[in-house]
Fold each of these.
Amino acid sequence: MSSLNLLDLDNHLQTQTPQQILQFALKEFENIALSFSGAEDVVLVDMATKIRPDVGVFCLDTGRLHADTYQFIEKVRKHYNIKIDILFPDAEAVRNLVSSKGLFSFYEDNHQECCAIRKIGPLKKKLLTLDAWVTGQRKDQSPGTRASIPVIQDDKVFARPGETLTKFNPLANWTLQQVWNYIRAYEVPYNPLHDRGFISIGCEPCTRPVGPGQHEREGRWWWEEATKKECGLHATNLKDSH
Amino acid sequence: MKITFVKKILSDGSPCAKCADVIGKLESSGQMARIDEVLVADERDPASPGMQIAKRFNVDRAPFFVVEKANEEPQIYTVYLKFVKEVLEQKTDENEELKEIMQNNSDLDFL
């Protein structure tokens, strides 16, 4: 698909429901998989398995997830009778990091080095095997960094050399409330941490419950500045220019 | 092969720090000699050459590289170390590439 086609497609898919977007994605791509974080993005697993029961699903096991999240991933595996590809970080890279900087270096500098090793490394390896992937990213997750995420995009970061990788974000236009309405309506299993005040769930040291009125972003990497967006090109300018 | 490097000027007129970092690396390593054209994406001017090429290739971040080869679709690289490895065919540090991806793609935070 050319970039022009993708723009047209995105404009069209922006008006579609997550189910319709998934239907399109699974029809267009055989070699496609869902990224499942063990949190509320379970709605994508629910929707996708109704379309393709043996859809590929993968989880990034950083080695630092909550015990409840591991239990929940197992629950999802059994509930939907699916194979979940659990991805692990490179052991030598983790060893080098914790040997030189300790087990909690992210509190002293930032989370990016640790995330790079524990999440991005295995993700990159996995995506080299796929033609398309699906995430649970939503615009309302982080106003600073996700205000303009497309529903379909050409993933230039993780594409194989000389090839294309397509990324779908079917929940881009859904709010957290809509996600939870779906979970309640369809009795989708969910991570019990949500009942204990966790809105966004990631690694145990980097996730905390939030209080009433707090944005979910405040429950993640709260010691860092929340809305850095140095590398983005102003989207309005890109869309409006002729 | 033609390689175009696109750097950004922010909406307040200041230069983009990441772009300056990449330019520094290109110059200190001698890789700048491989770059055929440098374009500026000025966020204050949608008609600037860099903004136009970003729009053409649907790129939503800068800096980035456009690699054009005869009879092939142009390739876009938004990760400097990926460009160095795949286009300039130079050895890179995997962990440094992963760190660059993480630093420049905040949307990956919640995976």
Amino acid sequence: MGPLPITSLTIRQFLRGKSLVVVAGIFGFTVLFALIRYLPGSDTSLRNIREVMGEGIFLGIFTATLLPLGTLILATAAFGDEIEDRTLQYLTLKPISRTRIVLEKFIAVLLITIPIAWIMLLLSYAVQCWGHFGDTDDMIVPMLAGTLIGVIGFGSLFMLISMLIQRALLVGIFYVFVWETTLSRFLSGIRSISIRHYSQSLFVRMLDDRRISISGPSAEMTVWITIAGLLIACMALSVWRLRSMNLE
Amino acid sequence: MPMLKRKPKTAPDEISSGPETAQVAPHTPGLSGNESATILFEGVSKWYGDVVAVSDVSFGIGTGVTGLLGPNGAGKSTSLKIMAGLLAASAGNVTIAGEPARGRPYAYRNLGLVAETELIYPFLTGREFVQLNATLQKVPNRNEAVQRAIDLVEMESAADRRVGGYSKGMRQRIKVAGALVHDPGIILMDEPLNGTDPVQRAQLIRLIRELGAMGKTVVVSSHVLVEVERFAQDILVIVNGKLAAAGDFRAIRDKIDSHDHSIRLRVSDPRLFASALIQMPSVSSVHIDKQNRVIAETSDVRTFYRAVPRAAQQHNVRLFEIQAADESLQSVFSYLVER
């Protein structure tokens, strides 16, 4: 079982289920969008390739919809499946702190979600920027960093939601499409309290390309502090919830 | 947790039963006079909205095997979950080894629960499941402890197969191994014999008795009266969320036996056998139901059970089935509550 037995157990839970395939499929949509470049009549100039990868795929599709959706599935499954299957008591009836249970579960979410997201993103980058790697490789690290921030933010929030309500997946989907995808895109007040904004802010700040930007990006430090605060708050609430939860 | 000495068994006239008997026996129901409780329920209630699952229940449980008896839906599982700290009581206090049961994870070093849930991580092998329990319990000499627990439930031959392919009885036994791997002093088992075949059942019953004899506090819930008789000397009877009776099994059984029982028999010649049964002194009435089964009322069920095969032989009637008509035992339990 190793030094993190609950993380190992949760990863095995993820690997055996269909959710992993679904998540890979969701993140894999970016590759399909990248393939558009190869349709007849497409603009294959370097400028357009960079803009499609940065604005179209990463900012427009990936961070706004696909990243929260994919993270939602695994983050809600981490505790949700155990609550539904009534197996959580095998973990809670042990002399280990509730904080450790929550942290190990969250680590499992990160260890599975981040590699899948990164692989699919790099795959779409390879497809989109094929032949122009030398002129576009400055986008890679900002994209990976933005993804990391997104997974941490969405993962901690959705894991907490799954411990508070039964239909976490439905609520999460509603949140993703209504809040993150729609409202935060058009209402500036909401933008600063959406995780998408911080994920995108880190990307555009690190990339520092005037042609690829968002409205009013937050500073890098603000991004890290905000996401760290969100993470701590969600973890603390999850631990509290686990302590007070009645396990039928 | 300090190990308590085995308690002297309660004499039949010391039976405590519900609120009425509490006046007769001023001590905590379930405990003999000077015995201290490993598990203590004090005025415990649990309700879900308007539904009361457990209602103002008080009892104590010492070392040895205690049967938690009651019909399905009586509140046994809820009581066990409250004991284990999985559920918060709506009212009252629950202590295990003198400390609140809930919100103290370190208390689980000395507690093992065989839960009612059938589900175990199906992708783990039986051995991995027991190893997981041992790891989370921080058991020293883990491999030895895991092997010992697997041997205890006689699961060695299937230990390296995935739990998802186990029969219900095998899942029950591997759950028991998982609950015992850290050698706890307090063991709670929720219907552990469910789904087991007769051989598995005999093994588990022997194990439960051995655990009790070792001085551990073992609480086993069941809705089958004759099952509890095989492993528990002390029982707590819970009906409709209330404590109906507590004390020595034999004394309570005698009380139950003196109540009229309805026994259903399926025989080759119902009319002939009905007329034979009504001749028995222990039988107060006999009738034949719509499915052509003989229903006999008796106030001496043990004599009745002994006499039936002889009567069938004498009258050359084939006996296919004999069982309590009140399978849930609800009427017997109700008798305990209402008397």
